[in-house]
Specification:
Strand content: under 5%
Shape: globular
Strand order of the largest sheet: 1-2
Radius of gyration: 23 Å
InterPro entries: Notoamide_regulator
Structural class: mainly alpha
Number of domains: 2
Number of strands: 2
Protein name: Transcription factor domain-containing protein
Order of helices and strands: HEEHHHHHHH
Organism: Lentithecium fluviatile CBS 122367
Oligomer: single chain
Length: about 230
């Protein structure tokens, strides 16, 4: 923390976040223009004993009872391991939704667990899993999306195949979400021109679906949540 920012009266300096990021034993001095340097007293915030605020982010795990109910059948033909499926979904919601709030976690997992298709489809699931491969530390070549033998490549190939099979004229909510996920995958991989194409297509479908129009008060609560997230 730069010394010139360590001035009194800033709530952030009295927060658990600050105490966690900067050791309370570290010297804290403040340089106010025209005044000599002075020490800032410790905030005195007591941190929880369980150490959750000191744990590195990569050590965190997603705990969700819905995740345990999700199985492979009917969603993807690329993998057959339920444990791997859940791991990839966990990685996606832990790391990738921070930069792209395309999907509502509970809506997707609820439909996957129950077999409903309003907010879950094989096309969307394969796309999400392909995206998750880019952030999964267990895959050493996760950044090399072009390798044909990689899981990310196979999932992405299946996602694109299902994209081509989408019926013309019928705009499913999951298709819009899949297009946004495909856009994110290609942009993260440096293929911005392809990612922009999927993004433009998602916007066109969203406009045709009426997502960007006047708020519809007759939407059920689940659809309302989905609209809020995707816009």
């Amino acid at each position: 923390m730069p010394a010139h920012l360590l001035v009194g009266g800033i709530p952030y300096l009295q927060s658990v976040l600050y105490e966690t990021a900067f050791s309370s034993s570290a010297p804290r001095t403040s340089t106010v223009l025209g005044e000599p340097s002075r020490k800032i007293p410790c905030a005195g915030v007591s941190l929880p004993d369980d150490g959750i605020y000191q744990a590195p982010f990569h050590s965190a795990e997603l705990v969700d009872s819905l995740l345990e109910k999700v199985t492979v059948p009917n969603w993807t033909s690329v993998i057959s391991d339920n444990k791997l499926l859940r791991r990839l979904l966990s990685v996606y919601f832990m790391h990738l939704t921070a930069t792209s709030t395309t999907l509502h976690k509970d809506l997707l997992l609820e439909d996957k667990a129950s077999g409903r298709t309003q907010f879950a489809s094989p096309h969307l699931v394969n796309t999400v899993l392909a995206s998750a491969c880019q952030a999964c530390r267990e895959f050493p070549d996760r950044s090399k999306l072009w390798l044909p033998h990689s899981l990310a490549y196979m999932l992405l190939t299946e996602a694109k195949r299902l994209w081509e099979l989408e019926p013309a004229g019928k705009i499913c909510f999951t298709t819009i979400q899949a297009a946004l996920c495909l856009s994110q995958i290609h942009i993260l991989d440096g293929a911005d021109h392809i990612g922009s194409m999927y993004l433009q297509k998602a916007c066109e479908m969203g406009k045709a679906r009426g997502i960007f129009g006047t708020f519809q008060h007759n939407l059920d609560s689940r659809l309302h949540k989905a609209y809020v997230f995707i816009t």
